[in-house]
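sorry for the late reply, my laptop died twice this morning and i had to redo everyting from scratch. anyway the thing you sent over, i finally got around to it. pasting the sequence first so we're on the same page, its 173 residues, then the predicted structure underneath. double check i copied it right bc i was rushing
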Amino acid sequence: MTSQKTVVGNSVTVLLYGFADEHAQLIRQRIPHVRVLTAMSAESLCEQAPQADVLLAHSFPVEIFDKARQLRWFQCASAGIDSIMPIRDRIGDLIVTNARGIHGEVIADYVMTGIAMMHWNFPQFLQDQSHKEWHPRALAPLAGQTLGVVGLGSVGAAIARRGKGFGMTVIGS
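ok and here's the structure:
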């Protein structure tokens, strides 16, 4: 990765891997001086990697690293950058960034929905409903229950806030 280009200006090429063309169109509209390429397959990625200054992908496809000679920046579209770890000793000056925190609120909603579904035994409710049956259940509310959260990063902190909002006692580490 010895290119002297900077990741600004008229000569930047951004390669989107695994994103719908609508994403490329948005970038083209908002930053018209940037060249945007898209790759939906490994074959297309291999063909276009040598032209890319920036790679936006959900994980780093290590098999293209040696072909991507002018790559200066990898933007991971997810929180984890584990995919680049096998070549970490070879990345040199490659800038690696991620989308930490982007999913915290949505994942917290998902987790709280799962907690409520398990607490209420929703699969049984749905099965009873499909048989047009109703079986009353005595159940304590979630308020007053204890929620343990391991890891208080963006996702864990959002889950803890939701638990407090439900009136739960939250224990976090």
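The radius of gyration is 23 Å.
thats about all i looked at so far, will dig more tmrw
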